[in-house]
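User: Design a sequence. Structure:
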């Protein structure tokens, strides 16, 4: 009988200890969850405010576009970038240039195609909440990159889809050749208009990566900027801009996938994908 009571006391003690550990673990887990939430509790206004500090005068690209060029609504920037020159200056002094011929608008807010849909913020896409003119580079498929530029509007950015290569083509060929898949012993050399005819292709050709370029201020950083085409100072004729739907976002639903948020230069061979139906209507 005594042995039975002793066993009961031991069992009760173990139960109390077990319950205490469960309670302690729950409290610890709650603290950990709270801590994680606190670490990820990003504020769009604070991100914007912090990105406005510390701007400096660049050493290179003194003719680049400044804040006022980028501080416009997303759709206006997407159109305004067409015909402008993207310049990449590498650490060894190599300069690459390409004319922007295709863009896509991602205005954020209710746009389900935007990574910032409904005000979503993560560490990986803080750049779209930074000052207009900030580079947002993200990884896709674990091996490619896409390059965007933030615009006016919380969480808004423009994706650069294609460039017409102008300077540094030898370097671009080498970079594309490193990543080009081929089953033949002598792979076919890419033509000039194929070097930057897509968002991932232009990033490969211009060595634009997340580690090197993400969150950089294009109005101040010496490694990347946008400037006027000195060979064509006249404003681009709206009749040369084709409006179409964005590419590769069918999963967000027809309403947003079909929005006319893609723009490209009519007749340019570097455009990633032509919309012949839009071009036909466009020409009438």
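Assistant: Done.
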């Amino acid at each position: 009988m005594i042995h039975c009571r002793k066993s009961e006391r031991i069992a009760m003690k173990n139960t109390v200890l077990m319950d205490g550990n469960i309670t302690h673990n729950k409290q610890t887990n709650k603290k950990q969850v709270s801590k994680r939430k606190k670490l990820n509790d990003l504020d769009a206004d604070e991100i914007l405010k912090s990105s406005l500090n510390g701007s400096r005068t660049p050493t290179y690209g003194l003719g680049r576009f400044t804040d006022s060029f980028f501080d416009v609504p997303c759709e206006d920037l997407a159109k305004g970038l067409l015909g402008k020159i993207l310049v990449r200056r590498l650490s060894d002094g190599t300069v690459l240039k390409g004319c922007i011929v295709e863009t896509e608008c991602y205005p954020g807010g209710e746009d389900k195609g935007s990574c910032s849909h409904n005000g979503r913020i993560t560490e990986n896409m803080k750049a779209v909440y930074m000052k207009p003119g900030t580079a947002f580079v993200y990884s896709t498929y674990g091996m490619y990159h896409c390059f965007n530029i933030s615009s006016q509007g919380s969480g808004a950015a423009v994706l650069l889809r294609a460039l017409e290569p102008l300077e540094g083509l030898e370097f671009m060929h080498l970079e594309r050749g490193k990543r080009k898949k081929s089953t033949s012993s002598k792979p076919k050399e890419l033509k000039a208009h194929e070097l930057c005819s897509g968002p991932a292709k232009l990033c490969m050709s211009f060595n634009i990566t997340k580690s090197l370029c993400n969150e950089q201020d294009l109005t101040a950083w010496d490694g990347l900027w946008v400037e006027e085409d000195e060979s064509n100072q006249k404003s681009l004729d709206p009749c040369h801009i084709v409006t179409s739907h964005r590419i590769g976002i069918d999963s967000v639903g027809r309403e947003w996938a079909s929005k006319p948020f893609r723009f490209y230069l009519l007749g340019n061979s570097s455009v990633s994908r032509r919309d012949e139906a839009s071009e036909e209507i466009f020409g009438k």
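Residues 1-39 have pLDDT under 50 and may be disordered. The radius of gyration is 26 Å.
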